[in-house]
Amino acid sequence: MSANAADCAQAVLEVVPLVMRTIRTEMRRYRGPELAVPQFRVLAYLNENEGASLSDVAEHLGLRLPSMSTLVDGLVERKLVARRPSAVDRRRITLALTARGRSTLAAAREATQERLAERLEALPAGELESVMGSLRLLRTIFASAPGESQS
User: How does pLDDT run across 112-135, given as a tens digit for each residue?
Assistant: First the structure.
């Protein structure tokens, strides 16, 4: 049976959500009890979008500005996120992870990577190589998609 682009697209739509669900579950498991899921999502977003505004983060998480402001206040108090004046517009405040915020996120990612590796160990070496090749191809195709955010 030969594959075509429509079949591949259907398989991506079926498989990627399964993989993402596993990643989200593991990341939440290792985020630490001191972080609520929305706070952890803020850290992950800022890791990929340093200098984002409060509005940017609120839009990404689907929260209203007052709720997002309260959430970010807690992260700033715990020294996980820093507020900074924009280099372009001094009326605008940008958000960035602190070293502590980066290390909190990195610890969760490392633990998640270990759990994913445990699941992938069930595959024979040849199949692991096939998965890696497919992932490299997908990265090439989707990393260069014009006009799309990488987060």
Answer: 899 999 999 999 999 999 999 999
Question: 93 with 85: CB under 8 angstroms?
Answer: yes
Query: Cα torsion for 83, 88, 92, 98, to the nearest 10°?
Result: -10
Number of separate domains in the chain? 1
3-class DSSP state of 13: helix
Domain that holds residue 23: 5-143
Please state, in angstroms and rounded to a whole number, the distance separating the CA atoms of residues 35 and 74.
10
At position 38, the amino acid (one-letter code) is: P
User: Which residues make Cβ contacts (< 8 Å) with residue 95, sequence separation at least 6?
Assistant: 46, 51, 52, 53, 54, 57, 72, 81, 82, 83, 84
Q: Is residue 92 part of a domain?
A: yes
- Bridge partner residues of 81 (DSSP): 97
- Largest Cα separation within the chain, whole Å, is 59
User: Is the Cβ–Cβ distance between 65 and 83 less than 8 Å?
Assistant: no
